[in-house]
Amino acid sequence: MKISSGTVRLIIPAASLAVLLAAVFYMQPRTMSYTGLNLLFNLAVPIALATIAQMLIMAVNDLDLSMGTFVSFCACVAATFLQTSPAIGILIFIGAIAVYAGIGVVIHVRELPSIVVTLGMSFVWGGLAVLMLPSPGGAAPVWARWLMTAKPPVIPMAIVASILIAAITHFIVMRSSFGVVVRGVGGNYRSVERAGWSVLRLRAATYALAGFFAVLSGIALVGLTTSADANIALRYTLLSIAGVILGGGEFVGGKVSPIGAVIGALTLTLAGSFLSFMRISPDWQIGAQGAILVVVLALRLLLNRLEKREKNR
Amino acid sequence: MNAPRTLLAKPWIWSFVATAAVWIITILFTGGASTVGLSQAALTFAAFSVIVGIGQMFVITLGPGNIDLSVPSTMTLSGTLALKLMDVQDSMIAVGLLLAIVLGLLVGIGNYALIKLLRIPPIIATLSMSFVIQSTAIWANRGLRIKPPETLANFTTSSLVGIPNIALVALILSALAWVLLEKSIYGRWISAIGQSTFAARMTGIPVDGTRFITYALCAVLASICGYLLASFSGGAALNMGAEYLLMSIAVVVIGGTAVAGGNSNIPGIWGASLFMFLVVSMLNTYGFGAGFRLILTGLIIIAVILAAGGRQSTR
């Protein structure tokens, strides 16, 4: 059986997740249980959704530096409006997704750098979040809480959710014709344009879809934490970018992998638990996380070299 | 009669126009009462953004994907370690500065080693590096907040003929950077690399050496800025660099440097830094709350980009 290069790309992320998981099991055997796994991966669900959103943006060669503030904003909406008056909450979310589509249009029409526009938007989302929740508070909608704390048989919710996210987005991005054209925009938008598609519409749709996943991320986060504050997800911007890269995605060229992105998000979450089990002093935990990132990327370089050597043979 | 037209064609002019507009609006509101105070504050705080902005600009000039995310953590580490080493002794001021510069060099070497040896995209390499640097800073910051040596603290907070000393330092650094960018072979090289790395390599430009120097330069400038900021604010804090991550990128881009690389300018960084500070103080004087202030700051950034962005579409 011939292994496609896409599968090869997934080997390193999957292997690093497996190694990390094995190490955690070895150090703390009690995590090898239903509850243990759920606790380990609980916080990965919102990160995975945000990573998928970032991945969509990166598929069209852009970068979203407002991801963290936007997810925080969504979490604040979910903890306030969505909980007290669901109709208004849903309207706000639809509006936010429309704004995302609008950002895509503006970036495309004016040929603006996405980094700068989203940088500006990060202030806007942050401001809106502060307006809604000046101090931490709010409450999770009952159904979101129920969904995130559900206990399906055999497999913990966090794992089920991750697999579902990976499967659905894999279908959208890798299997549907929409996904193929979106990745085509990242690869060579001129040829996509010449083939008759409207790149403007594609970019708007991609941004809207990314906005949708970021909204889900915000709701999932509130479902876990039961309350929100304006700074709740600020680190998601960098986590989501790192997750996509860890999962085998590239900054340019439309090379992305939804399954890889979810695995990348899981790996980043697990790295945190791993370090606390290692009893590494809290001072060095962030640093060690950086080191893990470097090691995984070094492994990937090694694998890419091997792949190239195989091809040259 | 060509002067006004060539001036209007400069990409950085818009940031100054916007700055002047915001300055006038703020002054009008206060009835001219705070003219001197506001201008001095603007110059002081803009100076810090200018110093980190220049470094970031050199990196962004290198072309798509080049960005240094380790700026804030480098600032924090250098401020923390330098103050610790100086230990309130005036005689150690120069040694502290030297430490800051060496630290910057080390960070630059680390950043570029990751980028080059591991072929990691710069954004991830500098991000990983910043985690490590931040950890070191947390570890070093244990204990009491150390005050800066008195002479240094006085120097950073006082001014010479009405212009804050910090702004003068930033002005000297900008002049040096301008010479480096416009008049030296190195400046030509980074622009060439930014326009086409492949073509630059073909013409025999030492691409790797130039990129390495650029990352080192950016880290050294961030380090010096951290040293000055810590002295100015009476001690190093772990989050002192945080706002300079977005700021360093924002001032470069608003200042008219092409994000795609290969075309940059120094005056724009000054315009943009003054603008960013004045916008916040304008919204403050008008009594807006934190939420509205953030929203308006964001909308103004986007508006400036929209207004100035047209010229980039000729690419």
UniProtKB/TrEMBL annotation, chain A:
A GO term from the CC aspect: plasma membrane
Top-rank lineage group of the source organism: Bacteria
Membrane topology classification: Multi-pass membrane protein
Keyword set, alphabetical order: Cell inner membrane, Cell membrane, Membrane, Transmembrane, Transmembrane helix, Transport
Keyword Cell inner membrane among record annotations: yes
GO MF annotation list: transmembrane transporter activity
Transmembrane portions of the chain: 7-27, 39-58, 88-107, 114-134, 154-173, 204-226, 232-252, 259-278, 284-303
Entry's localization field: Cell membrane
UniProt keyword Transport present: yes
Principal location: membrane
Listed name of the protein: ABC transporter permease
UniProt source species: Neorhizobium lilium
TrEMBL record, chain B:
Principal location class: membrane
InterPro entries named in the record: ABC_transp_permease
Superkingdom per UniProt: Bacteria
Molecular-function GO term, any one: transmembrane transporter activity
Bilayer topology: Multi-pass membrane protein
Record flagged with keyword Transport: yes
Transmembrane parts of this sequence: 12-30, 42-63, 93-115, 122-140, 160-181, 212-232, 244-262, 269-286, 292-310
Compartment(s): Cell membrane
The entry's keywords: Cell inner membrane, Cell membrane, Membrane, Transmembrane, Transmembrane helix, Transport
GO terms for cellular component: plasma membrane
Listed name of the protein: ABC transporter permease
Organism: Neorhizobium lilium
